TrEMBL record:
Domain Capsule biosynthesis GfcC-like C-terminal: 163-241
Protein name per its UniProtKB record: Capsule biosynthesis GfcC family protein
Domain Capsule biosynthesis GfcC-like N-terminal: from-to ranges: 31-147
Keyword Calcium: no
Alphabetically ordered keywords of this record: Signal
Signal found in the keyword field: yes
Signal peptide residue numbers: 1-20
Organism: Vibrio olivae
Amino acid sequence: MFRIYALVASLLTSSACFSAAPLVIDYPQLNLSLQYPQAVRLEKALDDAQTQLSKNAYSLQDYAIANRLFNHQKQSQAEQLQRRTVSKLRVLSRGQTDLSPLLDLADQVASWNVGYRERLSLDIDEVRITPASNPMLRGHFSLIAPPRSKTITIAGLIHSPSQTQVKAGNTAADYLNNALLLPGANKSFAWLIYPDGETRQIGYAYWNDERTPVPPGSTLYIGFDAPSAKLQQLEQDIVLLIGWKKDIK
């Protein structure tokens, strides 16, 4: 049904070979690609993925909420959004008396390795029982199935974005209590970006603390204080890009 290609040997394989195949799925964790002679359902692709991953002590079921499928044919859209976002942040910084917060944020966004992430459930059990969650796949994709993370990422308008260890019972406010905010940072609301890329804005200050639990592998992003409509759109673009990061860990 498929042929296996080692990515390390890609220089020996013509690019036309991959482009002609109706479906190619790369596995960065395994340095491996599966090439299919025809489009297949997501369920079939996930079954094959599980077979390959299990040979290397990985599993789609380890932490299904963090599984990610990136579309190579839409990669340029992700890169354009990243470049546009960085450019806007740097332009905005020119009108500020304190340039460092926006420039620091621009540098953060520019450093991310992003790709166009398809909004599909990659929980194999859900895919099997829900026809709407089992589309046909055609094109070139990368599938990442990371193990359950032990950290939470804190990013945005803060000094030294970092990862902190997951602590049982901790809420968003607990993780953000010790964050050193940059000038112009929102002291009451943060964005929670879940491992599956879904997002929500949450209250974390004393007066509006929602006691929000944070799943392992999530990102807490501190945005702008009282943003204008322009800054709100920019903030939403940044949050989207966080969900599109290609980190394997």
